[in-house]
Design brief:
CATH topology of the largest domain: Rossmann fold
Strand order of the largest sheet: 9-10-11-15-14-13-12
Largest sheet: 7 strands, antiparallel
CATH class of the largest domain: Alpha Beta
Helix content: 25-40%
Number of helices: 11
Radius of gyration: 22 Å
CATH superfamily of the largest domain: ANL, N-terminal domain
Bound molecules: zinc ion
Length: 444
């Protein structure tokens, strides 16, 4: 899940408040006004890409295009899509020559396929992210200042406190629950923290919230409830949602977004999956009509805010089903609806010390000399890590990696590294390389 309410986000409140005011109004605007807004932002991004990003200048020139050729959403199709491979191969050229104006920071993602991609996020993208989540959480009843439980691991890794089960941030009224230590043995610590701080809202990956619910139930700890559980980061399977809702006597609201921040879809109180048009431009490619009023296609998205490293027509692995005819949501919001999101679902890795770990990729982030990698959990207590190396991978890299992996999966799991070629990575039934393949039943 891509947002982190960092203190530095509050350092530019004017930008946040201005965009917030717009976001409050824009969700009810007629569709043509929303599209006009998208196109106004698009023209700014195109200007930035053409005049300041060497990669895009080259692409525009080689296609005989000028910024004035891409003024409207449908004009985007004149440009080729940008794949993860393109971003990897052209990182330096994708950086705008005026990037520093936008306070860029390096970020990294692996998606589901186990091939890391570095990119820049900047201040406009941070403001957008904050405002987007503020509105989405608001749909679920949240107001700034309410206490929120947040199941994640990045804070604990960053502060080298991965052994801690939780940490409370009083200034943000946020209770961080460490997803890396979630286990039957330590569930009592989580229950104590939740009783002490009494958050009304919780958010996290469905698999993590499911494990939290399951372990609490098994212990007969049934006094913890929320108003809303916000889900994201992976597909929310109905049986997981049902268990979360039943255990915490709450509603669940699902969302879909990416670290790269080009697209955001979120569920409203009426259950509709709304495309946040103000966030990015969503296109589908390789479309197939289902014959039932629904079209399925692969997600291609254009960021409307990232200036330090704009992504135009960025191709993701996810598949969406959309309605061919405009469909109104009972909530009254005009943001268009998606029928279904087929995307990320990662198996959990069950460690010998009883933890269920869903995040394994961070030790690979920003590591030099790795083209792609894959985790194979083929027997209890053993994790095989297949790595496709490139130049720059050294003995030191291996050591850093092993230490990083230990932080995530603990001391008791046997880790074996194997160096393989791209072709030797295992594929699923559809021929796709998945970052995590498990042949050991998760505790679900
Ligand atoms: Zn709605």
């Amino acid at each position: 899940m891509s947002v982190d309410f960092k203190v530095r986000e509050f350092a530019y409140p004017m930008g946040i408040l201005r965009l917030r005011r717009f976001f409050e109004k824009s969700q009810w605007l007629p569709l043509e006004k929303l599209k006009a807004y998208q196109e106004e932002r698009l023209r700014r991004i195109i200007h930035q890409a053409y005049h300041h990003v060497p990669y895009y200048r080259r692409i525009f020139d080689s296609h005989g295009l000028k910024p004035q050729d891409i003024q409207r959403i449908e004009h985007l199709r004149k440009l080729p899509v940008l794949s993860k491979e393109d971003v990897r191969a052209n990182y330096e050229e994708l950086r705008a020559d005026n990037a520093n104006r936008f306070r860029p920071a390096l970020s990294c993602t692996t998606g589901t396929t186990g091939a890391p991609v570095n990119f820049l996020l900047d201040r406009p993208a941070n403001i957008l992210e904050f405002v987007y989540y503020w509105r989405f959480f608001g749909w679920g009843g949240y107001r700034l200042g309410n206490c929120l439980a947040d199941v994640r691991y990045d804070y604990f890794v960053r502060t080298e406190t991965t052994d801690k089960a939780w940490h409370f941030q009083p200034s943000l009224r946020r209770l961080l629950l460490n997803s890396l230590q979630l286990s039957r043995e330590r569930i009592g610590e989580y229950a104590d923290a939740l009783r002490k701080h009494r958050p009304r809202f919780i958010r996290g990956r469905p698999t993590n919230l499911y494990c939290l619910a399951l372990f609490l139930r098994e212990r007969g700890l049934d006094d913890i409830a929320f108003e809303t559980a916000f889900l994201g980061g992976e597909i929310a399977m109905p049986e997981l949602r049902e268990m979360i809702e039943r255990t915490f006597r709450c509603r669940t609201m699902d969302s879909y977004s990416h670290m790269e921040r080009c697209v955001a879809v979120s569920q409203c109180p009426a259950g509709g999956y709304h495309i946040n048009l103000e966030y990015g431009i969503l296109e589908l490619i390789n479309e197939k009509k289902g014959g039932n009023g629904v079209t399925t296609g692969q997600v291609v998205c254009t960021s409307l805010y990232k200036m330090a490293m704009p992504f135009l027509r960025y191709k993701l692995e996810d598949v969406l089903e959309v309605y061919e005819e405009e469909k109104a949501c009972p909530c009254g919001r005009t943001l268009p609806l998606v029928k279904t999101i087929h995307g990320r679902m990662r198996p959990l890795i069950l460690t010998p010390d009883g933890r269920s770990v869903s995040a394994l990729s961070p030790p690979f982030h920003n590591l030099k000399g790795v083209r792609s990698f894959q985790f194979i959990h083929d027997e209890p207590g053993r994790l095989l890590v297949q790595i496709v190396k490139t130049e720059g991978y050294t003995v030191g890299t291996e050591e850093t990696l092993k230490l990083g992996l230990r932080k995530f999966i603990g001391e008791d799991m046997r880790i074996e590294l194997a160096y393989v070629s791209e072709e030797e990575l295992e594929r699923d039934g559809l021929g796709r390389v998945q970052m995590v393949m498990s042949r050991v039943g998760a505790p679900l």
